[in-house]
Write a structure and sequence with these properties.
The protein contains four helices and no strands. It is an all-alpha fold. Helix 1 crosses helix 2. The longest helix is centred in the middle third of the chain and has 64 residues. It is elongated. The structure holds zinc ion. The site of zinc ion has 8 residues, from loops.
């Protein structure tokens, strides 16, 4: 018995310990030694702690998922409002100036390519290349972040 318990104690957190404990639980309670009962008690306490922690993790994950869904819904509402605003602005622009949809698409392509990539995105953060070191710099800076060159001529 001592040998089995020693092995069980060494492998407390291993699969072997789980299997050994499961086998022990099928034995008659009166056949267990005090040490085996003590090990079983600690194992049960460990399992209960694991169950409680896993329930808490599950609950936390549900809260995180609900927060993510709320954020997605808010973003969808913002996109819908922006889409409505764009449609209203374009219709009014077209009505008052005759600016066509083809001209609008051409302008969108021009703006898209300002950062050197045709990716369907407007990224005002990445502006022009620094005239001195060639790195991408923000349009809002008056000097290059990397080399300090003046960017005033970049507009
Ligand atoms: Zn630079």
């Amino acid at each position: 018995m001592r040998t089995c318990l020693g092995t069980a104690n060494q492998a407390r957190h291993s699969d072997a310990f789980v299997s050994a404990s499961l086998r022990q639980s099928h034995r008659c309670a009166s056949a267990l030694t005090d040490k085996e009962i003590e090990v079983n008690w600690f194992w049960d306490a460990f399992q209960q702690t694991e169950i409680i922690e896993n329930r808490k993790r599950g609950s936390d994950a549900q809260i995180d998922a609900k927060g993510a869904l709320r954020s997605i819904n808010e973003l969808e509402e913002k996109v819908d409002r922006l889409s409505l605003l764009c449609h209203a602005l374009f219709e009014e622009l077209e009505r008052t100036t005759g600016f066509s949809e083809a001209q609008l698409k051409e302008k969108m392509t021009q703006i898209d390519l300002r950062d050197g990539r045709s990716d369907g995105k407007y990224d005002p953060v990445l502006g022009s290349d620094c005239p001195d070191c060639g790195r991408k710099v923000k349009k809002t800076r008056s000097n290059c972040f990397w080399c300090g060159a003046s960017l005033r001529t970049l507009g």
